[in-house]
Amino acid sequence: MGGLRRGDLLLHAGGVHDAQSLQRLPFGEAIGTRPPITVRRGDAMVDVIAVPTELATGTRE
Fold first, then answer.
1. What is the predicted pLDDT for the residue at 49?
2. What is the block-wise mean pLDDT of the chain (61 residues), using blocks of 10 residues?
3. I need a surface site. Which of 2, 14, 28, 58 has the fewest CB within 10 A?
4. Which residues make Cβ contacts (< 8 Å) with residue 16, sequence separation at least 6?
């Protein structure tokens, strides 16, 4: 099963290597794409698939 999980530590996302670059990404362009993402999950580095989508109005965590 792919995708991000709670507790994953983001190591690499579509050529982004630091928090500042991640915040500057034009997220509208990323919606619907499959950027390469690597996370640290426990003691392992894992490549995951996560497709960014728009949040629905009124969505809460």
1. 84
2. 82 76 66 84 91 70 57
3. 58
4. 22, 25
Predicted pLDDT at 27: 62
- 1 burial class (0-12, 13-18, 19+ CB within 10 angstroms)? exposed
pTM more than 0.90: no
Q: Could you state, in order of their start, the residue ranges of all structural domains in the chain?
A: 1-61
Match domain 1-61 to its CATH number in 1.10.3720.10, 2.30.42.10, 1.10.10.60, 2.40.160.60: 2.30.42.10
- Of the candidates 52, 19, 22, the one whose C-alpha atom is nearest the C-alpha of residue 35 is 52
